[in-house]
Amino acid sequence: MRTTFHSRKRTATIGAALTAVLTLALTACNGDDNMLGGGQTGPTASADAAGGTGGAGQSAGTGTSTSGGSQGAGTGNGGSDQGADTGNGDTGAGMADVCRTHVLDATATNNTTDETNGVVTVSFKNIGSAGCRINGFPGVDIKTSLGDTISVDRNGEQAVPQVLQEGDTAAFNITYPVNNSGGSGVKLTDMVVTPPNEVEPFDLKWPAGTLAVTDGQDGGKMEISPVGKVGG
């Protein structure tokens, strides 16, 4: 700031004026510095807070980030959900590979116990040397003696992740209405069974009875359950 003074004023007056002006200038500059300091302090604090929030995924694991606590809790909840699913099956489900057809041995057994509802159980045994993960519904197509193919629907139950260690077995049921019509019914011959999350199927023989026929059509509804670990 430049200040112009008139020459007819006395030297003492000029000196006093200069002192006042300098005092005001210093006060203004100090005020500006304080404002700058406040402006810098705000963003720095915000950056620290943002860094704490953004890094919550890392710092929450150590428990040292207060600002990231909220996000860390969210991450923990997500992990709990996954852990709960794993816990319903077996420890390490997230680490194991999917059970592939080449490490499984499949068999089909007639487990029908009454005259109304038929049950065929298909089992998958892990014959590999390492644990594998199995979860969901298989694909099942059943062939008839007439050359038709029946694609079996899911029953709507909740699938649970499972880990099959070497020698472990998982299984699912095919339910169907028993043919009590007195007629020959529809003869089922073969099954094409695909394990969950796989594309290579097994070809198995149908081990049970026939389906009733109504007006030349399949008179019964067949359903499959999700795969579950036997004894797990």
Note the topology:
Elements: H1 11-54, H2 56-62, H3 69-89, E1 97-98, E2 104-110, E3 117-126, E4 132-134, E5 139-144, E6 149-151, E7 153-154, E8 162-164, E9 169-177, E10 188-194, E11 202-205, E12 213-214, E13 217-218, E14 223-224, E15 228-229
Parallel strand pairs: 1-4, 7-14
Antiparallel strand pairs: 2-3, 3-9, 4-8, 5-6, 5-10, 9-14, 9-15, 10-11, 12-13
Q: Which tags fit this structure?
A:
3 helices; alpha+beta; 232 residues; 4-stranded antiparallel sheet; 6-stranded mixed sheet; 2 domains; Immunoglobulin-like; 15 strands
Describe the protein.
With 232 residues, the protein is of the alpha+beta class. The chain has two domains: 11-89, no CATH class; 98-229, Immunoglobulin-like. The chain has three helices and 15 strands. Strands 2, 3, 7, 9, 14 and 15 form a six-stranded mixed beta sheet that branches. The protein has a four-stranded antiparallel beta sheet with strand order 6-5-10-11, with no helix packed on it. Strand 12 and strand 13 form a beta hairpin. The protein is elongated, with a radius of gyration of 38 Å. Mean pLDDT is 71; it is low at 1-93.
Quote the CATH topology of the largest domain. Immunoglobulin-like
Alpha-beta classification = alpha+beta
**N-to-C order of helices and strands:** HHHEEEEEEEEEEEEEEE
Question: Can you give the mean pLDDT?
Answer: 71
Radius of gyration: 38 Å
CATH-defined architecture of the largest domain: Sandwich
Number of strand segments: 15
Poorly predicted ranges? 1-93
Q: What's the domain count?
A: 2
Percentage of β-strand residues: 25-35%
